[in-house]
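Hi F.,

I've been meaning to write this up properly since the lab meeting, where we talked about keeping a consistent format for the predictions we share between groups. The idea is simple: the sequence comes first, exactly as it goes in, then the structure tokens exactly as they come out, then a line or two of notes. No screenshots and no reformatting. I'm using this chain as the first example so we have something concrete to point to.
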Amino acid sequence: MKTVLTIAGSDSSGGAGIQADLKTMTELGTFGMSAITAITAQNTCGVNAVLALPCDMISAQIDAVCDDIFPDAVKIGMLANSQIVECVAASIKKNAMKNIVLDPVMVSTSGHRLLDDDASDALINVLMPLADIITPNIPEAECLAGMKIASKAGMIKAAGIIAGGFDGAVLIKGGHLANTGANCIEDSTNVAADLLYHGGQTQWFEAEFVDNPNTHGTGCTLSSAIASELAKGADMPEAVRKAKEYLTGAIKAGLNLGKGRGPLNHAWQNTISDC
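Output, unedited:
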């Protein structure tokens, strides 16, 4: 069985963070492992508190995994501060880890800031150069590229700017533009289009826009799915395609849990409908 390590924060409500990562990895047939960077007290309505773990404890978790069950791929999520960014980067180098999927978690679905300003600079300058793919959403891509994005042309321009800082691929998730007309295909506003930019080449991945408010953990789920597919041997475009299909299914299946933006149904492929 292929193995995947998630380096990310813990979500007490189970919808995002390492909880979403491990569910995704299991559903896609890989063995998930974790190194927790921060503990959050959160639910579907928002983030109430964040406690970043000490860097030596984070490094110890990563080393313990690599010394015994070396991961075939790594997903990196919430890092909280610049010290954690730098210690995670050092651990990746030390252990010569591969298939690095970086989800630049800057803001939660509920709008809570999860990465401070100093950490953003460290993310760009220290960690991004080690990644095989980075998966920002529109607001994150705007921050990384230093420009507003209001169209597919804007996504392409921003991806080129972001890609200029490292050798990996950039996947800009277009969900924030879906259903606005800016991201439409043949005048249809019912399309969610993601852009993969690698080596100067662009490729679009399109799926039906699912009008479901329960999207807590979508970014974590997609990046973990990409890491799982890379671990199983898929090339980058195939890994992105399969991951987007899995995510779309999880959003469609949905769960009506909580009072705010609820979680996805990670087990949608194995769910048996009531007769």
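Notes:
Residues 137 and 173 are 5 Å apart (CA to CA).
Strands lie at 3-11, 31-43, 46-52, 73-76, 100-102, 133-134, 169-172, 191-198, 201-208.

If this format works for you, I'll send the rest the same way.

G.
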